[in-house]
Amino acid sequence: MSDAVLEPGRGGSAPLATSTGSELSEVRDWITLLKPRVVSLVVLTGIIGLIVAPGSLHPVLAAAAMVCIGLGAGAAGAINMWYDRDIDALMRRTAKRPIPAGRIAPNGALGYGVVLAMASVAIMGLATNWVAAGVLALSIAFYVVVYTIWLKRRTPQNIVIGGAAGAFPPVIGWAAVTGDVTLVPVILFAITFFWTPPHFWALSLWAHGDYARARVPMLPVTHGARETRRQVLLYTLVLVPVTLLPCAIGFSSWIYGAAAALLGAEYLRLNWLVWKDAQDEAGRSLTNDRPARRAFKFSLVYLAVLFLALAVDRLVLA
Ligand code: HEM
Ligand SMILES: CC(C)=CCC/C(C)=C/CC/C(C)=C/COP(=O)(O)OP(=O)(O)O
Questions:
Q1: Alpha-helical regions (H) of the chain
Q2: pTM here?
Q3: What value of ipTM does the predicted structure carry?
């Protein structure tokens, strides 16, 4: 591209190339506001809720339902970035985001988030049913109001309670097909709910400096690294038995059961290493939080493969 810009006799291409480049990075910023990588896993759990639900949905309507979960989660992320723009500017991990970096105006981001959130709920209701749309609206409200506005800056339990927002997508997927919420989607909710604290607190172990600077009361800031490691392990000890409930109620077979047991054993091993990490008297890691970094990365693979195994199990049995 730069060669074309510098080529003699083609002076017109320079502004064109530059404006195309800046338009592209503007589009990228609007996409960044939707937290696309987080949303990809949210959508995966939603799709699997939809696949394992009894009954069927026309493929076009199923696709619309998934787009709505993605858009709704993304919209909630944009509103979260609007509200958190002051603390995002103080944290190294988030300072380059479009709003704190000054590339997107706060009100623009808020309007974008609100319009997308309302559109996602309305389209979900029209394409599937109003139970699914209602749960989608509830999850958006949970992320924005309960987690972001109410709890994030007040209590280290913010992600335990507010984290419920991220546990709704499989319930939404299920409800999109069946129009109701029964025991199985409640179990899928519980799996993501108990997965969220070890997922996030592993990251918070090495990002605690950011949170301390922004005065966000995350667990390592309020209770120290040692207690955070203990909580990571305790929640994993609850999580693993919860992941076996689909087998216990006869919904899933040995295929999912074996996957859940193997994944659970590995996640427990990694979080045991988090707990046992070499640390000073204050509980600070002497290994640059290597075990926590590994456990965080694995948490993403863990949830994705666990849900995929649930779907494979149902499809093989069908
Ligand atoms: C309150 C609950 C949660 C909190 C506080 C939380 C927090 C975080 C944070 C701070 C990051 C790092 C993001 C970054 O550096 O930009 C992250 C990454 C991630 N989270 Fe969570 N998370 C939560 C729940 C979830 C849920 C429910 C899912 C999906 C089901 C999820 C999926 C992901 C994924 C896929 C990444 C990696 C993103 C990347 O590669 O940049 N998280 N999470
Ligand atoms: C369907 C629907 C609405 C689902 C919502 C799912 C969802 C994305 C839940 C919360 C997950 C999340 C990225 C929290 C980040 O915390 P943070 O905002 O404190 O992280 P940050 O510091 O990176 O902004």
A1: 2-6, 13-32, 36-52, 59-83, 85-90, 106-127, 130-141, 158-162, 169-178, 183-213, 219-243, 245-248, 254-275, 290-317
A2: 0.93
A3: 0.95
